[in-house]
Amino acid sequence: MSEAFINSLLSQMTLEEKIGQLNQYAAWGNFDPEVVRQGQAGSVINAAGALTGSSQSESCTAETCNHIQQFALESRLKIPLIFGRDVIHGYRTIFPIPLAQAAAFDPQLAEDAAAVAAREASSDGVKWTFAPMIDIARDPRWGRVAEGSGEDPYLASLLAAAAVRGFQGSDYSAPDKIVACAKHYVGYGAAEGGRDYDAGEISEPTLRDVYLPPYQAAVKAGVGTLMAAFLDLNGVPASANRRLLTDVLRGEWGFDGFVVSDWESVIEVIHHGVAEDRAHAAALALHAGVDMDMASRAYIETLAASLQAGKIPLEDIEEGARRILRIKQRAGLFERPFTDPGQAARPMMTESDRALARRFARQSMVLLKNDVDILPLNPNRFKRILLTGNFLHAKGELFGCWTPDGRSEYVTPLDRAVREVAPKGFDLWEADYVDQALDHASQCDAVVLLVGEYPNRSGENNNVTDLGLPPGQAQFIEAITAMGKPVILVIFAGRPLALGRIVPQVDAVLYAWHPGIEGGAALGEVLFGLEAPTGHLPMTFPRVTGQVPFYYNHKNSGRPLNSPNFFRIRYVDSPSSPLFPFGYGLTYTTFAYNNLRLSSETLQGSLQISAEITNTGSRTGTELAQLYVRDLIGSLTRPVRELKGCQHVTLNPGETRQVTFTLNEADLAFTRADGTFGVEPGRFQVWIAPDSQSGLQGEFSYK
Ligand code: BGC
């Protein structure tokens, strides 16, 4: 089958059938088979409940999807539906939230996790996921930071491509693969004030160099679909932005898949104030390049009349239908519209899936502070340990946002999971209440405080004005630390929190994010040192909320932050620096960086940069060496640092190894003052570093 098949199919389709393909049917409990039988739907979202009457969180099942698919095969041209669902960081095997995944800085793990999610979801009939979410985010007040990879375009691009490979494989017609959807195109993370759905303003160079690269990486990796964002970007609703949806995406990048709107974002262009009514909104969105209308029904209700009235060209409808049919064809749906019951019977959450989830959780945890090497816990130093805090018995709370198919009954409660992995020799106590915790703390050798945000404090539309811990927790920490025992603070959260006042009070801080189904065991393994934490921050951690938006790859300004002069960027009530910079993360040993070497003083084609890293501690450990660059003089101002590479290196105590990075000419390209993309001659600084604020610095020139 090929394009010829699609063209021949299109030639047999009525106008209504073509428009039908553009409609994504959201039925919830009131599924009407006739919509499908009449060819009025190209896709069904969240296909739960056609048989039963459903709730939003009810899973798809192969039986339900097959039942609905049968109606499609009873339609005149028997065009199969594609079933779409939000499979964001796992289907039944819930992996850490995407922001936590980013902290692992490990694209292979992200790819493997997406492959597990694809296998599980496809066995329930889901052939299309609305993931990966690859929106750059510089403001952690925005709840959806949890769903993305943070603030850095290089890391986000690596992870975008990895997720696409994991979901889709090399051929997404394979029964255990699903079509990916890169979302939310584009600039969604720039919503002002961190308010989800609000408007954003992004300059063209920043859009090109920061927000668009992860999408370009996803397209390069072969992503089948994209989702248009809700927001108004620079005065144009993203779902009606022809320049970005058509000129850039298809014209410049050659994307030939389809674009789906976000939930009713087609008709929301009326609220944005650029369309008068549903017909106008539908015409604008379709012409901009939104091929499929998620849930609003505006396409199916208005496009035929708009065509007759001469308000839209037939090609817009035909091109949308063609793109959708193309992806269905690539997904193998014409040959295999049904989910094989054998596939449906396959077990989910297998031992190896859970092992992967545990490993991912461990590797995403970031050790932010570890005074006097309190961690890993050693029973000869701290025998009686108190576990307390609002996450003590957490189960489904470990999942984080967007897990409609996670099942908390499969999660071992946190305290039990920690006990199960605890080596012999510890005496683990627990306290459920504050007073009990205070009482027990005085009788224990150390306290592990398990605090943080519940999942519904982050994710869609869950924004905060205060990046502190949720109300009451800071007082609890203060009361516990007043007991004078060493305190290890473990924080579960869907975003960077502002912990400027908290961190100095405690002896150790481990950032666990929302770690997923194996979060408890992973935490235990890290606390007791069975494994070392190796995560690094994918976002800048501010001291106080008022510092955001805050990101490492900012511009220098004329009065730079770190200048010794009085007239520099500063706050009168807080240091200007972050509490922890992007890329930061400790482990159970220490490393020294020495002997930075550049293969040449000038980059011609490419340049090798190397450094020696030594494990200066007493335990084998893994370091994340990071390569940063700064373009010192540009036709436009350039960021103070940009990540261009990262490598894990595992070293025994005392061992030294050289890490080498290759920097290519293309890595120095940016959007220049004249709007073109390329490299400018001049001097550059380069670092091999353990985070975005330190490291060994060198210099080279280009041309
Ligand atoms: C979200 C999308 C999601 C869609 C379908 C919207 O509200 O913004 O991220 O994929 O719903 O559930």
Describe it.
The two termini are 49 Å apart. 29% of the residues lie in helices and 19% in strands. The strands form seven sheets. It has a six-stranded mixed beta sheet, with helices on one face. Strands 4-3-2-1-10 form a five-stranded parallel beta sheet. Strands 18-26-25-20-21 form a five-stranded mixed beta sheet. It has 703 residues and is of the alpha/beta class. Residues 86, 130, 183, 262-263, 460 line the site of beta-D-glucopyranose.
Please tag this protein with its features:
703 residues; TIM Barrel; Rossmann fold; Immunoglobulin-like; 6-stranded mixed beta sheet; 26 strands; 19% strand; globular
Could you give a short description of this structure?
With 703 residues, the chain is an alpha/beta fold. It is built from 20 helices and 26 strands.
